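ok here's ABC transporter substrate-binding protein:
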Amino acid sequence: MLAAQGAVGAAALAGCMGGDSDEDLLEGTGLEPVLDDVDYNEDYEDEFEVLYPSADLNPVDDDYIFNPYHPRWNAGDLGQEFGFEYLAVYHTERGEYVPRIAEDWSIDPDTLRTEVTLSEDYGWSTGESITAHDFVTGYKIDGYMGLGMENFVDIETGVYAEDDYTLVIEPRDEYTDMEEELWVGEWAEMILQVSEAQYGHFVEEFEDATTDEEIESVQQSLLEYDVSWDEVLYSGPWIFVEANEEFADQIPNPEHPIAQDWEFFQRIGIYVDEEGIQSGEVDWGDDSPDLDDVPSMYGEGPLPYDGQSFALIFGTEDEYIRDYPEVRQAIAHAIDIPFLTETAATEGTGYDEYSTGIDSLYVEDYVETDALEAMSNYGPEDTDRAAELLEDVGFEHDGDEWLTPDGDTWTLNFPVGDWFDTHSEMISNNLSEFGIDMDFYVEEFPTWQAETQQNHDYDMTVHLNYGMARDYHPYADFDAVFNDNNMGLFTERTGMIEEEVEVPEVGNPDGDMVTFDIPEELEAMSTADSEEEVISHATNLAWVHNQLLPAAVCFPWGGGHYWVNTEDWDFDVESDDWLTSNRLTHYLLQNGLERV
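and the structure:
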């Protein structure tokens, strides 16, 4: 859907600078098609096995944007993770980074100066070598767009190529005592979506810019960069070699050291979802809850995790939601989150029992057990508790509706993007049945994003990327909760939680009130010198989030059960290589896929 904060930040930037239509944003790049320079087997249709993934991504007529900084960039398997390669990927089962283009790295324990040695085996789809200069280009542009590691690294001087295959990254002086696991998470899982050849001139333009206006002009030019599917330099295992009105074909990248040995291609757009399954011609797909009667021959694969969470986000427009955590808690208690999860989430997904700001699949790694056990569980519907909380604030239940302390009908503005129409309708129905008057409506997602989310014009809404743990360190989660450009509580959603807060003592909801300085907790976590210290600060902030509840996290967002034709393909559904941030792609790169 959206790449961490990248696509969100780019979209916000585009909205701030005006121009909300593709006609306004998309202009020519001056790039030429590069397929003539790609050494691929043009007889792939006759000689390769064909696999039909259940997706309809087709870049014909530039319906799919390949500029990762454009607001419509779609970071899905078939676009981002099939087409572009990582420096390293985090394997969540093993708790470590698995090298990809990176061959090895060393970190100075005193300064955190990092040298990354790159493999010389990887190349762009046109045959040019992938070098450290390409990664420097990516890191620098991310930083200049406010989407990278610029908080910890001086983008102009702190990331550079020592030679073609040695990448150097150095933190700012004030972060040389940064916790090492957090430091590695800032740069290790870098996906190579841009090349120096095609994007290097933007770095030069950023470095030459001297005023805010000049920087914004370069940012706008980057947002407008309209790279077509046949102009892209691909670093990953797949490349597009055909796109027409009927279908699009991806074949293994002949310059990728692993994929170049594969002998199958993907035709997109022929079969979609259940149609592909029932045809008997589909060899893998995404078994979402919308698919019925999946043939038993395919079995059930593992549940891939997208590194995101689905959450009910509270706004600051309604004074009672803004000023009273009891009101936010009451709303959460009035929703049947387990039933919502069972109905709307991928089969097998468990609901979030804690709502800590850390994804429920990782929270036990970061938060002390005693604190978790003492936290409020907002998941199961508890209308008695919800009523008690509202009455404590001064609300009155009159007939079948709740009245505010001023005696007015309490109406909540609940606009959502159409990606989440079913989820939000269930939430709205729960709250209506409880007696809250709901102004609930669904907007097309780009409209919701530009007009509602960016302007925070809601009392509550729903979205992903909240408490996501996708950087594998609690600092990343809480920094996003409090400082994210779009949903951060210390930025645009100010007023709900102050920097200094009072909550019951950690682990005892009925205990004495204690005070936490949130920025101090974040800073201490970033420079902690032991795992125990990291967990201590994470526990404090998780407790604060659970008690004050600026958002009710509902469930981790899964991409579906991948299933395969196990009769025909040698596919190990038990492999823990699924358990990475880029599930299917990583499995194929680690294990391949061959006919039995």
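+1. Residues 107 and 114 are 4 Å apart (CA to CA).
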